[in-house]
Structures are given as C-alpha cells and as structure tokens.
Amino acid sequence: MSKKKNTGGIVYSTDPDFRPESDKPEEVETLAPAQQQLKVKLDTKQRAGKVVTLVDGFIGKAEDLEKLGKELKTKCGTGGSAKDGQILIQGDYKEKVIKWLQDWGYKAK
C-alpha cells in the first residue's frame, strides 16, 4: 500500500511557498434554535419504498446535529441517522417531529 498524500493532482510546484489546499470544510458555529430554518418532509427516494422523515437545513457543528438527531430518534422510538446537515428518522413521524422541534424553539415547517 502506498502512503501518498492527496495533493489534488499537483505533482510539482516551483513556488517555494506553495501549500496544497485541504478539502476539509470549515465547521460553522451552530445557530440558535430560533435562527434555524428546518424543513421536515417525507421521503422514499432510493430507500426501497420505505418512508423516512427527513429534517433538512440544520446549520452547525456535526456534534450538535448528532445530538438533535439522537433526541428525535429517542422521542420517535425508532432508528435513523444524522449527517451532512440532514436528520433521517425511519418511518412517518412528520407531524410529531414538527411539533417537537417547535416546542424546542426551532422554526420548522
């Protein structure tokens, strides 16, 4: 196995101050619940016909997204995941999720 660094296709540079750019996205601060514009919808695409409740539009750190996702999954009593600014809850819990998010101070529709 090769232990080469990913330099984005750059092999050689004559610039002595050159540093390859990292592809890591910068973490943004988590907005307050009242500033979050969350959209809750049902989705079946690419899920073998199974329904999932999708909470989209979360802006913030991955840890905070995971925490909110875990809280929602616990309330619904079901599984799911939280990544890339989205929370997936297995099953049709749209109305319950909207109610809980609004009770917690989030702007959800």
From TrEMBL:
Highest taxon of the source? Answer: Bacteria
Q: Pinpoint the SUI1 domain residues.
A: 44-105
Q: Where is this region: Disordered?
A: 1-25
**Sorted alphabetically, which InterPro entries does this protein's record hold?**
DENR/SUI1_TIF, SUI1, SUI1_arc_bac, SUI1_dom_sf
Q: Any keyword Protein biosynthesis?
A: yes
Pfam families reported for this sequence: SUI1
GO biological process annotations for this chain's record? Answer: formation of translation preinitiation complex; regulation of translation; translation reinitiation
Which intervals carry biased composition (Basic and acidic residues)?
16-25
Q: Which UniProt keywords apply?
A: Initiation factor, Protein biosynthesis, Translation regulation
* GO MF, one annotated term: mRNA binding
Record bears the keyword Zinc: no
* Assigned protein family: Belongs to the SUI1 family.
Q: What is this protein called?
A: Translation initiation factor
